[in-house]
Each structure stands twice: as C-alpha cells, then as structure tokens.
C-alpha cells in the first residue's frame, strides 16, 4: 500500500483514491485533477523515479518466484482509454522501470481476420502473462464492449452477455493466480484535441496520428456511455476498475505505479528458498 | 557508429574493437579488459546512461517505422555466454533503456518436449522480432552447436551441418530486413566461480543458482572449443560475432549498447511521413 505521509505526497492511498465506485460518473469526471495526491508535478516526477525503483525490486521477486515455484503468480495490468489518453507513455514510463525479461506486453487493435474467426477472448487468452511475469494489455477484451458497442459492430444481444462473461473470465484468472490491475484512463475532449494537434505539428509524431481518431471524437458521448457501463458492470471485488484522470501525465503514471506496487505487495512474496543444499554446493564450487 | 573522441572514452569504435576475427582465440581471451575503451568505470557508467537514451531515441524511430511502413525492419540481439556471463543483466541494463513495447524478448532453455519434436530452428522462428521491434534472444539457436555438441546430445553427423544451416538461416533473415547483432559473452573461470559463490551467499540470489552450473564448469575446455568453432564457422559479413569480455559488467553493457546503436544507425531511418493530408486533418480536428 502507498505510504501515507507528507514525503510521498499521498493523502489518500492511490488504490483508494482512484478506485471506481457506484458513484463514479464518467460524464462528470474532472480529468485535470490528482485524486489523493497533494504534491506538485516536481514531487510527482521525483516520486515516480523512486517508486519505479521499488516496483522494479518487487518485480524481480515475482520473477524469481516464477522461476522457482510451481505456483502460478502473475500480475496483469489492463489499460483502457480513448486515443491520446497516454497508454503508450504509461508503458514506457511505468513498465519501463522493470526488467524487460519480466514483462509480457500485448496490444490489441482492430482484430485480424484470424482473430475475427475466433471468440473475442481467444486472442486475450493467448496473451496472458506467464508465471512470474507482469503482463501489460494496451487495450484489451474491453474493446469488445467499448468500440464494438459504440459502433454496433455486433448486435446488442451479442455484446450484452459479454459483461458477465468477462467477469467470469477474470474471476477464473484471479483464482488461478493472476492479480488484475484495471486502469481506465480519461482525458477531456479539449485535452485530446490539444494532444492530437501536437501530433499534426510535429513530424516526429505524424506516425501516431490516425484520421480515425478525429472521427471517433464525434462519438464521445457514446463512448462515455460505454465506459460507464463497463465500470458499472465489470468493477468487481476481485478485479476492480481504477479511474485515472490523465490530463496530467505525471499523475497518471505515478498513480499506476502505486497500483502495481500495491498488487505486488499483496502477493507478499519472499525470495525463493534454496532447493539445494547450500553447504554441499559451496564445497562442490570450491573444488571446481 | 560510436563517436571517436575523448568524451566518449572510445579510442576504437566498439563495433571494431570487439568484432570477432580469424585470429580470435577463445582459450586465450583476457576477459578482464575493455577493448577500444580507454575510460574508467565511472565514465563507462555515465556513458551507459547517455547512450542508453540515444538507443531509446533510435528504437522509437524503428518502432514508428514498424507501425507505418510495409517494409520489415527489425534488430535481433543474440546473447550467448556461459552461466554468470551476465546475459540477464545485459537485458535489464541495456534493453531496459528502451520502451518495453518495442522489445520482443525470448529466452531459450532446455527444449520442452514439444520443442524436441520439432527442428531446432522451430522455436527460434516463432520468437523472431516483429516488424519495428528489437528482438532479444537470451541464448539462441547456438545452443544447438554448444551444449548439444559438448554433451553429445546428438551425434556429430547431426550437429556438424548446423553451422552452414544457421548461416543460411541468418542470411535469409538479414535479407528480409532483420539486422542481427551477435554477442558472445565471456567471463573467466575464476570470475564465474566468484559469481556463483555470491549466489550461494545471498538468499536473494539462491534462485539464480543451479547445481548444474558447477557441473558444467568441468566441461570448460570443451565449451571453449565449441565457442571457438561457433565463432570460426558462423561469424559472417552479414551477421558477425562480437566477442565481449564480461568480467567488468559496466564495459560489456556499454559495448553492447554501442553495437545496438550502430545497428540502428545503419538502418538510417527517418520519421515516417504523414500518410494523410496535414492541412485537411488540422481543419477536421479544429471542427471536432
């Protein structure tokens, strides 16, 4: 759990401050705030480095246990958010703190022809984190109740049962040892406009620009509705949603770092014990 | 290419200083040296951070092109070395500088039952980097001419043709757009003993210790012979080996950073041009 003191800047631990509740109203969200955190950007950025190092230390323990134990333990970070919310930056600046060997990263775009021939969870199951790994989903199975719902890509009778199905899927995952950290990232319509405009100004950002992103802006209320339904129906005790305001990138990155640290600390992992006789091995090594 | 001036500490660019040649003698290697580099550890560690940032910038360009171009461009780092040579640390401290989204990491241990039923390159092909990615192989297809040869896991008539087959495999890879950076990492027998001893002293390192590692020390001359044959027969113009002394971890990490930077610079990538009309999009965005 995030330490509660002035040094850390957190007045309320991130896990509580951004946890979705029955009162969460997507349409009313202020995305330019820093829930639970009283510090400024400078403190936030310094803390991100410090806590990134803590995250890295915890990840190594997870990895060590993955190598040494038969038990499956893994952490899955699910990132959902509108374009420009900062999913890519989140991976770079948060997951970038940990050993690349310990990360199973997957991003989910428009399904390929092969993926379309399968159940929507097919590509998700294939990408789940291995034992000892931190998995990262840049978009996820939630696309199948977001873009799919907004654009009527399948009829309601088809997407409607998915909420329950996803809950069951995640319940099974958690029971088999995967801690799920779900993060819904929100920017305002204005902030999105500013970020898209920057991509049109800078030749090193053109590749990130997609004309379809502007088209999607026309569906903002429908997306808000779909996000609301997602939070209402799939924020569970075993896999709650976290609603992270993302206009201030430094805050969103720090908050997600705290969420991951919390998930790892809850695993309460120690270093794996030696599965060999230490003195015997010291002797063998000395003689070698 | 590494900049040649006093600030960088490189008197000879890393790419030249560690490139395997017909004169390379594995049995005579001094592993406690810093070929081409005149600076000390302090400078080396500072440079690693600076050049790590350069590597990260180049990786982003590779990634951008992977997203925007039909052409396949990728870089594959192949790490081979005896236990404790520092392959894991190399991934953490060198590849750790780049965006995790842009890394396809794979490690190759003892083949699984399924892998054993296939050609030895089967598992390798499956793990090749995707377009725009930096692939990292922690061990590789070279295991099939190293441990396999040392322990007679298959008869000579079977491993002998593999050198040529690997060369052809890598030639095809390079021709289809993958730059291969092959790094053979060497520590001395004494340094290995010290590193294994540390694993037996520290409970946070037990998980890295494997009694088999001591057994393998008994085959040191045979491994040297197998590494020699590997260098002699598979260091090609299109995929040369680099022989990196690894007793000083800071040096080996800096050298490999330079090798990767060199490989990326040779691709001579620009930012992908806009594949949309910029003014039209600015108008659309403003109106959205």
UniProtKB/TrEMBL annotation, chains A, B:
Q: What is this protein called?
A: Polyphosphate kinase 2 family protein
Q: Which Gene3D superfamilies match?
A: P-loop containing nucleotide triphosphate hydrolases
Every copy of the Polyphosphate kinase-2-related domain together lies at: 47-266
- Organism encoding this protein: Rhodococcus spelaei
Report keywords, A-Z: Kinase, Transferase
Q: Which GO terms describe its molecular function?
A: polyphosphate kinase activity
Q: Does the keyword DNA damage apply?
A: no
Q: Which InterPro entries match?
A: P-loop_NTPase, Polyphosphate_phosphotransfera, PPK2-rel_1, PPK2-related
Question: Does the record bear Kinase in its keywords?
Answer: yes
NCBIfam families, alphabetized: PPK2_rel_1
* Biological process annotations from GO: polyphosphate metabolic process
């Amino acid at each position: 759990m995030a330490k509660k003191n002035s040094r850390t800047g957190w007045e309320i631990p991130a896990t509580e401050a951004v946890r979705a509740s029955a009162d969460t109203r997507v349409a009313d969200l202020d995305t330019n705030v820093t829930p639970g955190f009283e510090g400024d950007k400078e403190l936030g950025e310094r803390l991100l480095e410090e806590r990134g190092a803590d995250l890295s230390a915890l990840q190594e323990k997870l990895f060590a246990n993955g190598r040494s134990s038969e038990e499956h333990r893994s952490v899955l970070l699910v990132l959902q958010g509108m374009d420009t919310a900062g999913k890519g930056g989140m991976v770079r600046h948060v997951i970038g703190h940990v050993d690349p060997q310990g990360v199973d990263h997957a991003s989910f775009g428009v399904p390929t022809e092969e993926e379309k021939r399968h159940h929507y969870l097919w590509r998700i199951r294939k990408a789940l984190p291995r034992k000892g790994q931190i998995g990262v989903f840049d978009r996820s199975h939630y696309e199948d109740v977001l873009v799919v719902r907004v654009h009527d890509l399948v009829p309601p009778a088809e997407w409607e049962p998915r909420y329950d199905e996803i809950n069951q899927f995640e319940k099974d995952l958690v029971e088999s040892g995967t801690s799920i950290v779900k993060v819904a990232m929100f920017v305002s319509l204005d902030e999105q406009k500013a970020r898209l405009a920057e991509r049109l100004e800078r030749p090193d950002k053109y590749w990130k620009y997609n004309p379809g992103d502007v088209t999607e802006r026309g569906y903002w209320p429908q997306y808000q509705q779909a996000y609301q339904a997602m939070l209402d129906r799939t924020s569970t005790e075993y896999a709650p949603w976290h609603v992270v305001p993302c206009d201030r990138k430094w805050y969103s990155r720090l908050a997600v770092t705290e969420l991951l640290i919390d998930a790892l600390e809850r695993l309460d992992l120690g270093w794996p014990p030696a599965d060999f006789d230490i003195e015997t091995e010291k002797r063998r090594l000395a003689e070698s």
